Amino acid sequence: xxxxxxxxxxxxxxxxxxxxxxxxxxxxxxxxxxxxxxxxxxxxxxxxxxxxxxxxxxxxxxxxxxxxxxxxxxxxxxxxxxxxxxxxxxxxxxxxxxxxxxxxxxxxxxxxxxxxxxxxxxxxxxxxxxxxxxxxxxxxxxxxxxxxxxxxxxxxxxxxxxxxxxxxxxxxxxxxxxxxxxxxxxxxxxxxxxxxxxxxxxxxxxxxxxxxxxxxxxxxxxxxxxxxxxxxxxxxxxxxxxxxxxxxxxxxxxxxxxxxxxxxxxxxxxxxxxxxxxxxxxxxxxxxxxxxxxxxxxxxxxxxxxxxxxxxxxxxxxxxxxxxxxxxxxxxxxxxxxxxxxxxxxxxxxxxxxxxxxxxxxxxxx
Amino acid sequence: xxxxxxxxxxxxxxxxxxxxxxxxxxxxxxxxxxxxxxxxxxxxxxxxxxxxxxxxxxxxxxxxxxxxxxxxxxxxxxxxxxxxxxxxxxxxxxxxxxxxxxxxxxxxxxxxxxxxxxxxxxxxxxxxxxxxxxxxxxxxxxxxxxxxxxxxxxxxxxxxxxxxxxxxxxxxxxxxxxxxxxxxxxxxxxxxxxxxxxxxxxxxxxxxxxxxxxxxxxxxxxxxxxxxxxxxxxxxxxxxxxxxxxxxxxxxxxxxxxxxxxxxxxxxxxxxxxxxxxxxxxxxxxxxxxxxxxxxxxxxxxxxxxxxxxxxxxxxxxxxxxxxxxxxxxxxxxxxxxxxxxxxxxxxxxxxxxxxxxxxxxxxxx
Lengths: 366, 366
Known about the structure:
The structure is a homodimer.
Chain A: E1 8-13, H1 42-48, E2 59-64, H2 65-74, E3 83-86, H3 91-106, E4 111-116, E5 120-121, H4 124-138, E6 143-148, E7 159-165, E8 175-181, H5 186-195, E9 198-208, H6 209-219, H7 221-232, H8 239-247, H9 255-258, E10 266-271, E11 276-277, H10 285-288, E12 297-299, E13 303-307, E14 313-316, E15 321-325, E16 330-334, E17 338-343, H11 350-359
Helix pairs in contact in A: 3-6, 3-7, 6-7, 7-8
């Protein structure tokens, strides 16, 4: 495979705010800006992961004003003009539209890979291989998505059902997409896991900018109209003002349900062995970090003294000593103003804590 | 019972250093000086508990130089000259001797109650009643000890076996002591619990100063000689110097094995319902603090947000928020430089942690 990537761009989506990694992630310190795994932040790792495939000038970041400054300081290698600022978050469909419109103006032949800023991928070589393959398929005007071969019956992800293999003499498996499925119930997740033809929706998409803009025109004419209007101000002094004005009127919609579900030419590349995690919940760190012989993980150079302790993850933002005795299957997150101690299998309840804090106006912890 | 307490004194022993309440208790901050239960320190509570029975001028404290200043600031109501400073810790027998000699010099008719500084007693009225009774028995030259009616087969305490009821027309139960027993094995502890004639040795003793000095003369002639020599310097300018010089030569011995075991006239008042605890281990706080409906205890005004959490004790030295999810039967001690998370039934292993820290010269945590 020697596909020409001269017009291929990476677009990193980085506006999100999640609450499931509280108390480490906060409004002002969203997950992608934190050094969760090793010394780099997830955002830095996402950029670094693209080295060798995209030069910095072909890596774009779409984010919100509040996060842009920190991101720029974390990745000084990216040109300033490659940061696209959303006036306010309006869902992934709008992000995709803004990025596609911008790239069209800069390079009418542009293809793009949309990549979340806060995921982990262990096998970078395979990731590069898959992206190149996806760009090759996308060149034939397919909307391509990377599917993750499921390893457990997760109810935290949407699923993609594959149909027939795609014609075209590809040397890797690629299929037409039969359907996108929302996050399933536990029972359904079990069935999907064993079906053999479903992947997790990773939120990674690859397409030509003209193809995705065509699709937006058909599926989301209002968004397309807005993009046309903003695009008509391209290079003019009132571009930012018109972007801001028009953007606030957009409805919030996702690329999955706003575009992909109804599109005709959609393909999936299923990926096993990528070592992918969305790091969406504290327990997911057990999948991406290497535990010691007792299954314990001390992240971020935490000083952990463990007696009769198993399968326990400790994260400390300071150099204090953390001692555990007789503790099993627990996650301990020690930050300046808050301490979380949570059974691993209940880490999904962290979001309930954040809801509680919101409801009781404990702003300083949010 | 209207026994005259004019010559009755309380002597609080407060030199100890224990490690089992780490990380809260440290070399510089021993257990008795900490506000473990409510706002007062255990030492302050011990002094306060004597209100109504002893005026401040009849309450003495025996401690070491390093702790005296903090103690004086915690209990300004006690006269300065009522602090007796041990040049170095030499066991409870020496403390008893020093206090008895001092009281003899001040008041030849003195009786004294020896009381640990770091225990908890809920039922203060009953405690007063028992002390008065004990002084009455002691007035007949008995060495009296308060026994605690056991509620579980503890291996953490010595036991006292009672013999025949003491003649004398007492309106409360009081027995001759048949034997003192060291901390038993688990199996023996079960037998002692069900025997019906064994109490825990609480370390609280009541006697006339002349009676205990006589006993020291017989059982521990060397200590007695030292006390005589020091006593001969009473009121002289070289008293402190001779105390310091002679004290360092003493052997370390306990009152239980050095004196009580071999004494002739020894009596025990068994006490049930005193709500006593030696607060010797973190799990003992569950016996003395009132839990909420889920069995959780947040001490020291700790801010604890509990989800699916049961029988868990949280102590925080700061105002940080502590969140637990799915946590059961756990003790969480959050101090400035160290955090302990320990299954309640393993709190005896805290001392192993301290040993480990000593061995690895982690002085700053000791």
